[in-house]
Design brief:
Number of strands of chain B: 2
Structural class of chain B: mainly alpha
Strand order of the largest sheet of chain A: 1-3-2
Number of helices of chain A: 4
Distance between the termini of chain B: 85 Å
Mean pLDDT of chain A: 87
Mean pLDDT of chain B: 87
Largest sheet of chain A: 3 strands, antiparallel
Number of domains of chain A: 1
Helix content of chain A: 55-70%
CATH superfamily of chain A: Winged helix-like DNA-binding domain superfamily/Winged helix DNA-binding domain
Shape of chain A: globular
Radius of gyration of chain B: 28 Å
Oligomer: heterodimer
Helix content of chain B: over 70%
Distance between the termini of chain A: 19 Å
CATH architecture of chain A: Orthogonal Bundle
Strand order of the largest sheet of chain B: 1-2
Radius of gyration of chain A: 16 Å
Strand content of chain B: under 5%
Low-confidence stretches of chain B: none
Largest interface: A-B, 20 and 24 residues
Chain lengths: ~120, ~450
């Protein structure tokens, strides 16, 4: 499903941080995990993931290190930091409020909640 | 993976690498992504070339992605000169050695200058300063270019001969009405022209002895222009530091001036020159040359200036007060025009066809020649009336040399813009003609005092 780019931009940071809080990862694997978690319904422009990761790195939310892939190519790994965890917790609270509010709107609206899977 | 796919990925990498905001590391990272994506898609049943296309598509529009990179790393859009590279790149050691050598040479030159300042009177100091500063650069270049001993010996011998000429000629001094004395005409001419001769010797060192090579000569022209630019910038920066220091020292009740004259300048000037020379060598192909950029800005302005000058000279009084100052001014104007031409030629792509700018340059040459023609005709009658002095002869000689340079450059440029000649001809003429300036300066230094009996 095509998702509005503002929504993607807003949700990308908590998504990436959340995935990294499961453990260290690298670009492609993060993208793949997003697809898994959304049941394949969230489609990203893959290239946009990297500027985002670099921004998180600059903000100190993640730490990067160079390693090797199974085939021996250089690969950049990312791990979440403590400030990253704090930022994630803060984002999570904000999103919770947004989600709850939206939920109430949908209900007063008289339509079923958006995501059938989550209901 | 197949050869075909590798070629496609190579092509993609080249495409990405052209974006200034993306570094090699970014490309490695994204290529890893691309390869993973292709492998997964191929495992899912797609043919390799199809998988490649899908993977590239999913990567997104490169313009958008690179804009996003640029937003995150705006500093990357500015090319930075890495003076001391990061460890692990292999050039660190040699770069530090280079810098150490430069500082060493600068210190030696500073000590030599300090000794001269302490031991010589003012005029002797002015005569000899160039023999400290220029050989420092020349010696360093000779070492860097691994100049042969024979070339080095010849250069040293010529410089030594010049030292003897400048210091042993019995120059006449002009007594001042209020006591003291000033150097005479030929002495001043020698002081002005010695650095030019020494700079020509430096060119030989710069070319590694291969002074006949036109390519090396043009490189030396570029080196000289960039050196001048960097020196001007360093001078401006140093001026700020000194100005601030003077202010604070004064408020604290101290006088900076004695230190400035006795220590800061004798060590600062050679230091500035050596560091500027080093910077130009290091930055050579990393940062755009400044001199040609300035040329582009100033060529149209200079053209306007010359046209206005022409009008003023035609409309003005018939040069009643014409004196050698007019000739010297004209020399300065022509030197400016030659420099503008030389530096835009030095940056001109030889393959590029003639454009608007070449016409502009042609206009510049024609205007300069017209202005100079008026000045010269006025001057020649005056000289015929009042006879030849060393100053007038030197100024006129230089004027004629510049005139010949410009006239022929104009002719060749005309051929180039009308497509009957090539840019190569224009460029060759510059490099071929350059030694004339050095030879003329040598004549002024060595022969003029003899001809004009040291007046």
């Amino acid at each position: 499903m095509r998702i509005d780019k503002d929504l993607v931009a807003a949700s990308a940071t908590p998504l990436v941080l959340g995935i990294l809080s499961e453990g260290e990862s690298y670009g492609y694997a993060i993208g793949k995990r997003v697809a898994e978690l959304s049941g394949g319904r969230m489609e990203w422009t893959d290239g946009m993931l990297y500027p985002l990761l670099h921004r998180l790195e600059r903000l100190g939310h993640v730490e990067a290190s160079w390693g090797r892939s199974e085939t021996g190519r250089r690969r950049k790994h990312y791990a979440i930091t403590d400030t990253g965890r704090q930022a994630l917790a803060e984002r999570q609270r904000q999103w919770q409020v947004v989600a709850d509010t939206l939920d109430n709107v949908w209900r007063s609206f008289g339509t079923p909640p958006v995501a059938e899977g989550l209901a | 993976m197949s050869v075909d796919l590798e070629a496609q990925i190579d092509q993609w990498r080249g495409f990405v690498a052209r974006r200034p905001a993306m570094t090699t590391d970014d490309i490695v990272e994204m290529e890893d992504h691309l390869r993973n994506q292709i492998a997964d898609l191929a495992a899912g049943g797609l043919a390799e070339d199809e998988a490649f296309l899908v993977a590239v598509k999913r990567m997104g529009n490169l313009d958008d992605v690179s804009r996003e990179f640029a937003r995150e790393h705006s500093e990357r859009l500015w090319r930075q000169l890495v003076l001391i590279p990061e460890p692990g790149t292999g050039v660190v050691g040699s770069r530090w050695r280079d810098l150490g050598l430069v500082i060493g040479v600068a210190l030696l030159a500073g000590i030599a200058l300090k000794i001269l300042v302490e031991s010589l009177d003012e005029f002797a100091l002015i005569r000899n300063v160039a023999f400290v500063l220029v050989p420092a650069v020349a010696g360093w270049l000779a070492y860097k270019r691994r100049v042969s001993w024979r070339v080095a010996a010849v250069l040293t011998a010529v410089a030594a001969a010049l030292v003897l000429v400048v210091n042993l000629y019995p120059f006449e001094m002009v007594p001042l009405p209020g006591g003291g004395e000033d150097p005479g005409m030929t002495a001043v001419l020698v002081v002005i022209h010695t650095p030019v001769v020494l700079w020509m010797l430096t060119a030989v060192a710069y070319a590694g002895g291969d002074w006949r090579s036109h390519g090396r000569r043009m490189d030396f022209v570029r080196f000289t222009g960039e050196l001048a630019m960097y020196l001007a910038l360093i001078q401006a920066g140093a001026g700020v530091l000194i100005g601030l220091s003077v202010g604070v020292w004064n408020l604290a009740g101290f006088d900076l001036e004695p230190y400035l004259e006795n220590w800061i300048l004798p060590f600062g000037i050679p230091g500035a020159i050596m560091v500027a020379a080093w910077l130009v060598e290091v930055k050579m192909n990393v940062v755009e040359n400044i001199a040609p950029v300035l040329t582009k800005v100033f060529t149209p302005l200079a053209l306007v200036m010359l046209v206005a000058m022409f009008a003023v000279m035609v409309l003005g009084d018939s040069f009643d007060a014409v004196d050698r100052n007019l000739l010297i001014l004209m020399d300065a104007v022509l030197i400016l025009v030659v420099a503008l031409l030389l530096y835009s030629i030095s940056a001109h792509n030889p393959m590029e066809p003639a454009g608007v700018f070449d016409w502009l340059q042609l206009g510049l040459v024609v205007a300069a020649l017209a202005v100079d023609a008026i000045a010269l005709s006025a001057m020649l009658t005056r000289i015929a009336e009042f006879g030849w002095t060393a100053n007038k002869t030197a100024a006129l000689g230089l004027n004629l040399i510049l005139l010949a340079h410009l006239a022929w450059t104009g002719w060749l440029t005309l051929g180039f813009v009308r497509r009957t000649g090539t840019f190569h001809d224009v460029e060759r003429w510059q490099t071929r003609y350059l030694p004339v300036y050095g030879l003329w300066a040598a004549v002024v230094v060595v022969a003029f005092p003899l001809i004009f009996s040291f007046a």
